[in-house]
Amino acid sequence: METLQRTANRGSISTGYDIDNSVKLEDANSEWFYNASPTAGNRRTYTFSFWIKRTEIGAVNASGNAYVIGAGQHGRMFFGGDYFQYRFDDGHDCRNVSVQFRDTSAWYHFVVAVDTNQLSSSNRVKLYVNGESLAVDDHDGGSFPDLADQGAFFSTNYLTIGTAPFGGTYNVGDGDYDMSGYLSEFCAIDGQQLDPTSFGEYDEDSGIWKPIDVSGLDFGSQGYYLNFSDSANLGDDASGNSNDFTENNITSADQATDTATNNGCTLNVLASLEGSNDITEGALVSTGGSGSFNGTYGTIGIDPFNSTVDWYWEIEASSTTNGSTDDIGIGWIKESRITSGSTAYNNVYADGISRYSSQTATAAGDIWGVLLETGATPVFKLYRNDSLIHTSTNGIGGVSFDTLMFPYITVKGTGTDARLNFLNPASSFSIASGNTDPNGYGNFEFDTKGGYALCTKNLAEYG
Hints:
Helix content: under 10%
Structural class: mainly beta
CATH topology of the largest domain: Jelly Rolls
Number of domains: 2
CATH architecture of the largest domain: Sandwich
Radius of gyration: 23 Å
CATH class of the largest domain: Mainly Beta
Strand content: 25-35%
């Protein structure tokens, strides 16, 4: 388990191949892809490969299962209890119930390789994560597929990505089984049982598993390759087979540049410092809950004293805030003050955060720019609709910066949304004009004032 988690790709390594795009899927919005009438391929021998960054874990919906792909009633690849599980067909489950995948800051690479013509039953289904074998240690009362058995995948069954086709007659997507997260490099190989080296390799310096170019693979006649590069047609099959998928509630705003070769900062869904905020839309929207303050922080930390560049991010409020009944707090939190419990907010506010909250009326749709100028005396600047409204040197009200600071927000007031943009804007973030950072990364409403996007390519280069 330690090896599988250690080799999870956080995108901070140098690579000769870059993945340009991913797609954000949100279970609350019933977002998925489907192919209503696929043509049958080789139902005995095939391989699936995909990269995934999860943004919701545990019992994420009514069924408790987050489906990556489904074929008819019995073809399944999903996370149940955060374990990865695969079903060849009814009675032939091949699951791992030893390793949970709960790191929402990481990209994982999964491979499912099938060949029921193999004489040894254990060779008929092979699971891999980050280049390593993942044991099939449970069959849910069933077994490995029988010799020369034909399963649900590569049949004419209704096919979905991001949910299960469990609606009534198993020919529509079912919102009780949706996943939330980012997907990229989704490959289906018809007719071959491949190992992970067809899709990735270990970085020789770091030992981290990283993607390679898969465009030259033989996908077979009914295989497909979704690289999510066409924002107007995210279900386009780039394999050359024209086995396209139809988008369900997916728009161009769901295309992202958060990938396994440039991992973007998101909100940490494992940590709610106080209150009960709901984190959605690729972990880029925090919605206020029942608590007085609903605080959380980002997945990428910055050393404000030793970084060689400045850093920039944006936040949009969904509704008017007035500083008394509704409020959005914006700032940076010290690693040492990341705690949980009823006093977390007070602890953070007292001596752990450089924070600013507007105490005047803020119109819905206002966009706040957050700039951290680094150096011997770090400076925190806050812009409202591109106008500088606040500057603080080395903290606010005597609260000093520490050597590791994370972007931090609080949302006070039930139903108020804070929409984040660290690299990619949340799908509901209103971007009217696109601006990038000095390296060409990101899609921001306003000029970044020389600040860099919070992503691992920038982090690796500038610290």
